[in-house]
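Entry 14. Structure prediction run on the chain below.
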Amino acid sequence: MEFEMEIDSPEVLTEVTAQYARYEAALVTNDVAVLDELFRNDGRTLRYGVGEILYGFDASNRFAPRDRRSALAYHGQDRHHHLRPRHRVASTLFYRDAWAGGKVGRQMQTWIRFPEGWRIVAAHVSIIDEPRDAGPKT
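Output returned:
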């Protein structure tokens, strides 16, 4: 059985890149309304954070009320991998000046296009010692 998949459709890339930019801007400025909008309000939405495993939209909000979280300052390298016209995975390596080059943060999100627009249904954030072969920083 042959399976053909369109990779990196320009239309989908433009749409998800715009939503991802909204997410990143909301994250660093604590725009709670946008953060809540972009995560799918569903009991099956999951978030694996640096020190937590959260199942469901409500669990994520109870763990770290976004209106009490400090803004994040970092710079990153974005890598977006298109899976299907309605599904997309965004992955980012990020660095904070306070880590002094010894750590790298990793963030991945699975986005799905619903009738109301693109929403995050799964997210993962972790921080590790930077591997020697991590590639160039931007």
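Helices lie at 10-29, 32-38, 57-63.
Filed with the rest of this week's runs.
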